[in-house]
Amino acid sequence: AVVVFSGxxxxxxxxxxxxxFSVSIHWLMFGALLVVLRVLxxxxxxxxxxxxxxxxxxxxILFLRYRxxxxxxxxxxxxxxxxxxxxxDQDFHATIDA
Length: 98
What we know:
Helices cover about 60% and strands about 0% of the residues. The protein is mostly helical.
């Protein structure tokens, strides 16, 4: 779910928020693992549980951001794209010498 909602937000143009959230959640997970393994000296299985819970929490936060709909107001392109004018009278496959 983390990958799906994060990708959906990034694809919709909400890239800055998705990047900040991704960096923050990864540092928080790193800190949580340090505390669980080094400070509390708990079993690595507990560390796995902490990681799974972290991903579940991240999924919920990303889902709420997606569900909130603020990404709908983002503009993916800053200006309209101009269509290049082409000469449609020529044969498409014709060479320059023809």
